[in-house]
Write a structure and sequence with these properties.
It contains 2 helices and no strands. By secondary structure, the chain is an all-alpha fold. It has 2 domains: about 30 residues; about 30 residues. The N and C termini lie far apart (about 55 Å).
Amino acid sequence: MADIIVLLLIMGYCGFVIFRRHRQKKNATQNGCQGICAGCSGCGDFSHLKETYFADKRKEERKI
């Protein structure tokens, strides 16, 4: 009986995570772009990656 309860809790949590992720992806931005992707018009321009890369490098240098 305890196994069934644990299994139901795990399945419920997985369903919750999937639903939350779907809703987050749907409502995230106007074009749905949340990162680097092939078909997203907001991510079609990779010029922002250079800026992000160098900003991360500066943060790492400050930590050292």
